[in-house]
Design a protein that fits this description.
heterodimer, A: 160 residues, 5 helices, 5 strands, B: 287 residues, alpha+beta
Chain lengths: 160, 287
């Protein structure tokens, strides 16, 4: 059955009429065409579906869309308006080759951004602990950690 | 994609939640953080007909110091618990335990009430609430009752929280001067459920206390430490025997054989008791 919810996504508030069975990840991708959020495992392990929900990261495959009434959602799309305007964390991932296929990357970047907002000088151990919920099958995490370290340095100089 | 249809409600008071839970005709489930329930629905393992979300119920997420207890609201997230100054000051082992649940995203949504009511045999809080002798406050249509951890766990994923119940609050006694507590777990991949986990609380005033283990039985099990600690040192063989007695019913599975799990039980019981003793005597690392 369908229900109406009012949700704010990337700064825009709107009413959505969706099936109660739909999870947030699918609502973002299919109803709102925001396909930067990816569905990997679909059951809360891999983190490819990570979004920012009411200010902190959450796995959107584990959130029912109907349960986001009144909530504020930010997806990876909110980090840049185009290739000439990208977030320092995204820049660092490019510079340090912190991705290969890119499937985990949106979730990884949002987790990295949350880490750096809470801890601007993370150790390597703290970085690895912070991305425990984002699985990457390509990189072996080495360049991801480098990218996050580089982003930390950049943001320390010029905070956004 | 969840295939089975269900009704969704987001009532704005606990009384309204309980009224919906009292529907005996249909299968009604509570939704808190959703980190266990939603994936099980996606996998087709749970098919509630009615889902009652706690999201709009006010004043169910809190951490309060009341007398000699820390009272934690049922929808308080693991993230809030692990980062709380109150918890770190008064019951630091609880913060350490919560910080090891899943990962950042899981902890941002998962709740202590949801986790305890779900009672996965490998979850983090069960051995902790048992070792710390916490109590769970359950609200239902007939009122409120307080269930001690010793009576809370009934079987695999079965607790004192029944069909019309809401786990509204967890009450954790504060650590006294001379107390030490530790939580440790054996996990192969960080963020996964532990194979075996253990929590110990020791008092250096009279060398009593308790160690409890998860993952070795259908419910968390406990060993009373009175008589097992000689002037600040635990009797290894005595502790091993006592642990063996409570892990006798462990079953083998894909994660390990009976011998392996019982070995982990003995090892982790020893480690957390040693760590708790060090903390109780001030010779351990500060949390």
């Amino acid at each position: 059955m369908k229900q109406a919810i009012r949700v704010t996504v990337n700064g825009t508030t709107g009413d959505v009429f969706i099936d109660t069975r739909m999870v947030l990840a699918d609502m973002l991708r299919e109803e709102l065409r925001l396909t930067g959020t990816h569905v990997g495992c679909g059951t809360g392990s891999c983190g490819a579906c990570t979004v920012v929900l009411n200010g902190t990261t959450a796995k959107s495959c584990c959130v029912l869309a109907v349960d986001t009434d009144g909530d504020i959602v930010e997806t990876i799309e909110s980090l840049s308006t185009g290739p000439d305007d990208i977030h320092p964390v995204q820049e660092a991932f490019i510079e340090k080759h912190g991705l290969q296929c890119g499937f985990c990357t949106p979730g990884m970047i949002l987790s990295a951004r949350q880490l750096l907002a809470d801890n601007s000088v993370p150790t390597e151990a703290e970085i690895r602990y912070a991305i425990t919920g984002n699985l990457c099958r390509c990189t072996g995490y080495v360049n991801i950690v480098s990218a996050i370290q580089a982003a930390a340095e950049t943001l320390a100089e010029t905070p956004v | 994609m969840i295939t089975q249809e269900f009704e969704y409600h987001a009532p704005t008071s606990l009384d309204d939640v309980i009224a919906l839970l009292d529907d005996v005709e249909r299968d009604v489930e509570l939704l808190a953080g959703g980190m266990s329930l939603v994936p099980t629905m996606t996998l087709g393992l749970a098919h509630p007909e009615v889902l009652v979300s706690l999201k709009k119920v006010p004043d169910l997420a809190y951490i309060r110091l009341v007398g000699s207890e820390l009272r934690i609201g049922g929808t308080t997230t693991h993230a809030a618990i692990s980062g709380s100054a109150q918890v770190l000051d008064h019951v630091p082992v609880l913060a350490e335990c919560a910080a090891l649940i899943g990962d950042v995203q899981v902890r941002n949504r998962g709740t202590i009430g949801g986790s305890l009511a779900h009672a996965d045999p490998a979850a983090n809080y069960p051995p902790l609430v048992l070792a710390l002798r916490a109590s769970m406050v359950i609200r239902s249509g007939v009122g409120e009752r307080v269930v001690h951890a010793d009576e809370f766990f009934k079987g695999v994923m079965q607790t004192a929280v029944g069909e019309g119940d809401v786990l509204a609050e967890v009450r954790v006694p504060l650590q006294a001067v001379g107390d030490g507590a530790a939580y440790q777990e054996f996990v192969r991949v960080e963020g996964n459920f532990a194979l075996v986990n253990a929590c110990a609380l020791v008092s250096s005033r009279n060398w009593t206390g308790r160690v409890s283990l998860g993952g070795v039985a259908s419910v968390p099990v406990k060993v009373e430490l009175a008589g097992l600690i000689d002037g600040g040192s635990v009797q290894r063989s005595g502790l091993d025997e006592a642990v063996d007695a409570v892990t006798a019913g462990v079953f083998a599975d894909i994660n390990g054989s009976v011998e392996y799990k019982r070995g982990l039980g003995r090892t982790f019981a020893r480690r957390v008791v040693d760590a708790a003793i060090r903390r109780a005597t001030g010779t351990g690392e500060t949390p």
